[in-house]
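Job type: complex structure
Entries:
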Amino acid sequence: MKVAQENYHEKLSMSPIIRAKNLTKIFGDLVAVDNISFKVYPGECFGILGPNGAGKTSTIRMLYGLSPMTSGTLDVFGLDVTKNARAIKSRLGVCHQENNLDPDLTVKQNLEVFSRYFNMSPRAAQVQAESLLKFMALDHRKDARVTELSGGMMRRLVLARALLNAPELLILDEPTTGLDPQSRHQVWERLGELKAKGLSILISTHNMDEASRLCDRLIIMDHGGILVEGKPFELIRQYVGHDIIEVLEPSQTLRAFVQSRNMEHEDLGHRLIINTEDGNALFREISNEYCQEGCIMRMATLEDVFLKLTGRELRK
Amino acid sequence: MRFLRVWERNLIVYRQNWKISFVPPLLEPFFYLVAFGVGLSALVGNVSYQGSEISYMIFIAPALLAINIMNNAFFENTYASFVRMYYQKTFDAMMATPLTLEEIITGEIVWGATKSVIATSIMLGVISLFGLIRYPEGLLIIPLAVIGGIAFGSIGMIFTAIVANIELFNLPVFLFITPMFLFSGTFFPIENLPAWAQHIAILLPLTHMVNLTRSLSLGIVDMSLLPGFCYFVISCIVFFPLAIHKMHRRLIK
């Protein structure tokens, strides 16, 4: 499957916008990133998922040159990160996890001052700032102090800031974590518009909904390595099937029934999760005979894949 | 030259608060000169300095300038830089842009020196109203503030790179800055100190800065300025790269 994908891309002679090969990062005794290899192609949205401590942040930091790699090769835009950091960063946009905006400056000043770090002229900085403020619906707050903004607005401002240099690749670290639904959907819409214009996106997130909506392909990391790689819907089909039936407080008879039919399931004590390809008939059977209330059917999601592959134990 | 972009950011923020920033260098000399000059002068009388007798006010005025150069750069590159680096995460954001860490730290240190120059220029103006500075030699104090600012700022930046939290700045402030403020030939000649203390004082940067500002204020421009000047040139050459090295170790992992 993976080889076929690579050949497909090679045939279209698209050279990857990111190429990581045997990428490793070791901090003392800790192997944070363990010999991983992946490619991101122009125009796609690529996701990096994983539990806490999986190595996502370390990988991302190596991408924009903040953290030097221990071994391996990493090319962005076909350039080696160890040698061409400046050239790479001028074509890159980074939307950090923290809102590291400048509290001493207004909304518009934050953008104008930041543009100058890319050596944009003051005039260009002003024009870009105004255009991005409109794009992110922040125009009406352009003279506000950053500290007066709501969480959603701050996030949109960080995203606007990442776009100042009209990057070819946008790196997003938890872009919508903690946002209200309206802000989240607005951010997704903006990202969708940017992607349609050709922007390549690399996103790291815990929000599985976000990952399955936005990502064309993704990897799930754990303990520094890549567990799986693929398209969201293919991973879902491959690992958890099509439908999920969840039963609260399952009875022993239900458990016996599930086992007798050799159904793929997960027994969490107070909850029973059943994976199946076609849930309709099964759901009717279960809800009629084994539980009056407390059972639902839903489609399998990326979160189910994630939890199946990385387990339900708490991390770090 | 991209460090100028970082410097520019600090300047834009400073300009918003310039009215407040101008107050200390305007008022401080008044307070000290009135308290020590008017208050203590009568008790102290004249001070013997390099063979001649000078009034106590003339003796301490240049020390106020030297202290100002030190404090502005040092506190800007400790507390203010630390807040930017650690609490606001401004440096993290900058490092995702084409700026290098070297450029960021250079911009910060040059900004610290800029604050020294601005504050010193204002203070020089105020002190001159008291007629305590000889011109044109006194004007050389302004370029001196540049090199002094870079040296003291670099030292401050080294502490910013190594302290775990902001409270730890108390250590260099109380073990280094405050003793210098009192004992570097500022409010009394170091010859009044016991011999062992004089040996220590000679090693301290503020002692040399005070000597330089005092000489310039008295209109003395000759080879006697050379050792002090070399001290600061060497300090810059040593501490500036060291500050960058330490910050590298802190931020790039």
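Summary: The CA atoms of residues 113 and 146 of chain B lie 5 Å apart. Residues 59-251 of chain B form one domain.
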